Every structure is written in structure tokens, then in C-alpha cells.
């Protein structure tokens, strides 16, 4: 394989891609604008919401008033950026809750039930279904009721202890068991809360690898089948460049633009989470494995797409076949958000590791816990899969097949 011939093909492909401003904007510029814009847009819409809450105090006692006022303050400060408008209605019975709002009804006998040592009362929470904001406010109401309940129980225990003439630590009496969480890192050392945050961030990073796969599919299928449909591939074969040199040049061009797209997607993803208030915590090893996995994935996907394109009659059939590969990648990277691969049965783990995309995900996840050996192994396996598919594509990339489909 002659390097100058590969460079010529690569330069030709990059020139073709550079003239397609819409594609460049779609794969590089659009993610940098769209994902942060989506976070800002969603955040703006979220802040623009408002919810009317009516606290109906049918009891009209001092305790019910204390509950109502405390709940109102809790709701108004419980969802930063969202307007929760609370109105306390005292002495009102049979209140008709307006559609789309929430009513908290404190029934008559509320204070008497709480004052009795074995008394029990219920408050009614009237919610309109189908509203995410209503669900959040309802959860706040339930949370405040739980806090108020704790205070009532502590008061009852204090009264019982006083009547019995004994001294007790009410907090210890009601909460005798405490759980202290510790994180064990790779090798048995303490990981701490930071280690947990890095490991959870790695799940998001592993999912982001899905966005690396798509650009290479589009570029390579158009570069091979598109050129055949435009009748320019024959001229390329007449230049004297070998089929391997043509293939490597095309894959290298797709990889270059694919990596640019991957970098844009990655930066956009970090910006999205930062603007959404969920900043990712990344370690140097995690970032390095993320970058290396992205590079290998672009080349791997280009090789798979080149193999499929060499056997496809039209660019549509090439992209359709390649998007099946994309769906497999989506399944792997989406599952990385919720599945611990090390907890799977051995037979299922082996089956998943027969899929090359799995190793990119595992390399990132292992890097997040500092397991350099496992990260290296998965990167090596991913490299092997990449070389295998490039070799398979080179074998299929014959002059007769790519022109005549024979």
C-alpha cells in the first residue's frame, strides 16, 4: 500500500466533504448548538411553569394553622425557579378544586386526632393527573407531611416518657439504627463519594458513544455507493490507486470527519448536563478512554459500513443495512445506563462481548473505577474487531464487486 496514493484519496474525500456545507453543519455545528440550546429551552420552559395550590383548613385550630403555614412555606421554596402559588383557605368546607391545580384538605378533627396518643388523622390531596409538575408538588406535600409526622411522634414519645418518669433521648429512641455508606474502589481502597460520582458519570459517557457511530455510516455509504451511483467511482479506479488504498483513504476521511463530529457531540453533551444542573465528574483516565474509544468506534463503524456498502446496490439499501448496526449500538449504549455488565450471567456476558460496541462501553466504565488493566484489555479487543472489519471490507472492496455487484 502506497502512502502517497492513500493521501491523494484522503484529500479528495475531504475536499468533497468540505464542499457539503449542510452536512458539515449537521454533524459538527448542529450538536454544539442543539444540545445546549435544548437544555436552555427546556430549562426556560420548566421555569415558566406555575402551579396553584389551595390549602383548605376545615379544622381551623392552632395546630392545623401551623401545619398549613409550614406547608405553604415548604411548597413555595421547594421547587427553585418554578412559581408555586399557595393560598390558605380557613373555615371552608366542600371546596371545589379547579382543574389543573392541587388542593390539600385538612379535615375537621385534625388537631384532636394528633393530640391523642393513639390518634390518627388523614389529609386529602387532590391532584389533576397527567401533569409532571403536579406530581412534583404532590411529592413535596407528602414529604412535608412526613416531617410533620415525625415531630408529632417525637412529641408523643416525650409525653409518654414524662408520664412514666423516665428520661429518654427521643431521637435515639425513634432512630436506633443508622447506615453509613462506604465506597470501595478498584483494588480494595476507599473510593469515596467522588468515586461514585465518576462511576455514574461514566454511564452517561458510555451512552454518548452512540452518537459517534451515526456520522461514519452516512459518510462511508455515500462515499462508496454514492460515488457508484454518480458514476465517479470508475474514474477513481482508473487513477492507478489500488482498491485497498482507495478503501483506506475513504475510511480515513470518514474517520477524520467522524472524530470531529464525535468531539462536537461530546462537548455538547457535557454542556447539556452542565446547563441542566447535572455536571459530569470526569477523571483523566475516563476522558482518555472516552477519546480512544470514540476514535476506534469511528474507524470500526466505517469498516462495517464499507463492507455493507460494497454489497449494496443503492445508497438507501447501504444506509438501511448500516442502520441495523446502529440499532445494535443503541441497544448496547442505552443498556449501559442501567445495567452492570459484571453482574450478568457468564453466558450472557460472553454473548454481549461478541459485539464490538460492548467493549467500548466496558472500557469507559472500567476506566471510571481506575481499572487500567481491564480498560486496556477492552481497548485491545475493540482494536482487534476494528482491524477485522477493515480487513473484511478490503476483501469485499474489489473493482468488479463495487462496480458490477458481482
From TrEMBL:
<feature type="transmembrane region" description="Helical">
    <location>
        <begin position="246"/>
        <end position="273"/>
    </location>
</feature>
<dbReference type="InterPro" id="IPR013525">
    <property type="entry name" value="ABC2_TM"/>
</dbReference>
<feature type="transmembrane region" description="Helical">
    <location>
        <begin position="372"/>
        <end position="394"/>
    </location>
</feature>
<keyword id="KW-0472">Membrane</keyword>
<keyword id="KW-1133">Transmembrane helix</keyword>
<keyword id="KW-1003">Cell membrane</keyword>
<dbReference type="InterPro" id="IPR051449">
    <property type="entry name" value="ABC-2_transporter_component"/>
</dbReference>
<dbReference type="GO" id="GO:0140359">
    <property type="term" value="F:ABC-type transporter activity"/>
</dbReference>
<feature type="transmembrane region" description="Helical">
    <location>
        <begin position="21"/>
        <end position="41"/>
    </location>
</feature>
<feature type="transmembrane region" description="Helical">
    <location>
        <begin position="204"/>
        <end position="225"/>
    </location>
</feature>
<dbReference type="GO" id="GO:0005886">
    <property type="term" value="C:plasma membrane"/>
</dbReference>
<feature type="transmembrane region" description="Helical">
    <location>
        <begin position="285"/>
        <end position="308"/>
    </location>
</feature>
<keyword id="KW-0812">Transmembrane</keyword>
<protein>
    <submittedName>
        <fullName>ABC transporter, permease protein</fullName>
    </submittedName>
</protein>
<feature type="transmembrane region" description="Helical">
    <location>
        <begin position="320"/>
        <end position="339"/>
    </location>
</feature>
<dbReference type="Pfam" id="PF12698">
    <property type="entry name" value="ABC2_membrane_3"/>
</dbReference>
<feature type="domain" description="ABC-2 type transporter transmembrane">
    <location>
        <begin position="22"/>
        <end position="394"/>
    </location>
</feature>
Amino acid at each position: 500500500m502506497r502512502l502517497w496514493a492513500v493521501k491523494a484519496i484522503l484529500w479528495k474525500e475531504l475536499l468533497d466533504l468540505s464542499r457539503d456545507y449542510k452536512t458539515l453543519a449537521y454533524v459538527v455545528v448542529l450538536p454544539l448548538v442543539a444540545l445546549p440550546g435544548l437544555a436552555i429551552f427546556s430549562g426556560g420552559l420548566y421555569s415558566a411553569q406555575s402551579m396553584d395550590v389551595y390549602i383548605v383548613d376545615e379544622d381551623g385550630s392552632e395546630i392545623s394553622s401551623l401545619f398549613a403555614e409550614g406547608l405553604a412555606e415548604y411548597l413555595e421554596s421547594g421547587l427553585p425557579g418554578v412559581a408555586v402559588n399557595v393560598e390558605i383557605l380557613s373555615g371552608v368546607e366542600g371546596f371545589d378544586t379547579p382543574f389543573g391545580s392541587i388542593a390539600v384538605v385538612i379535615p375537621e378533627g385534625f388537631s384532636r386526632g394528633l393530640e391523642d396518643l393513639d390518634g390518627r388523622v388523614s389529609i386529602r390531596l387532590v391532584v389533576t393527573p397527567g401533569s409532571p409538575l403536579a406530581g412534583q408538588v404532590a411529592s413535596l406535600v407528602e414529604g412535608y407531611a412526613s416531617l410533620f409526622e415525625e415531630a408529632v411522634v417525637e412529641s408523643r414519645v416525650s409525653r409518654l416518657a414524662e408520664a412514666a418518669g423516665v428520661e429518654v433521648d427521643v431521637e435515639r429512641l425513634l432512630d436506633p439504627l443508622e447506615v453509613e455508606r462506604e465506597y470501595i474502589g478498584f483494588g480494595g481502597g476507599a473510593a469515596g463519594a467522588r468515586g461514585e460520582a465518576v462511576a455514574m458519570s461514566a454511564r452517561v459517557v458510555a451512552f454518548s458513544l452512540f452518537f459517534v457511530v451515526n456520522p461514519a455510516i452516512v459518510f462511508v455509504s455515500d462515499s462508496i455507493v454514492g460515488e457508484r451511483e454518480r458514476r465517479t467511482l470508475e474514474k477513481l479506479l482508473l487513477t492507478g490507486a489500488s482498491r485497498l488504498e482507495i478503501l483506506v483513504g475513504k475510511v480515513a476521511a470518514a474517520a477524520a470527519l467522524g472524530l470531529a463530529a464525535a468531539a462536537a457531540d461530546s462537548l455538547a453533551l457535557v454542556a447539556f448536563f452542565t446547563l441542566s444542573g447535572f455536571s459530569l465528574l470526569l477523571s483523566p483516565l475516563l476522558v482518555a478512554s472516552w477519546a480512544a474509544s470514540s476514535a476506534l468506534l469511528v474507524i470500526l463503524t466505517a469498516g462495517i459500513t464499507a463492507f455493507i456498502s460494497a454489497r449494496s446496490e443503492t445508497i438507501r439499501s447501504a444506509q438501511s443495512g448500516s442502520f441495523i448496526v446502529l440499532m445494535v449500538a443503541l441497544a448496547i449504549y442505552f443498556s449501559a445506563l442501567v445495567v452492570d455488565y459484571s453482574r450478568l450471567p457468564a453466558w450472557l456476558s460472553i454473548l454481549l462481548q461478541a459485539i464490538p460496541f460492548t467493549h467500548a462501553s466496558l472500557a469507559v466504565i472500567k476506566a471510571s473505577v481506575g481499572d487500567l488493566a481491564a480498560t486496556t484489555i477492552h481497548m485491545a479487543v475493540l482494536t482487534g474487531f476494528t482491524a477485522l472489519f477493515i480487513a473484511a471490507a478490503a476483501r469485499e472492496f474489489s473493482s468488479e464487486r463495487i462496480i458490477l455487484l458481482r
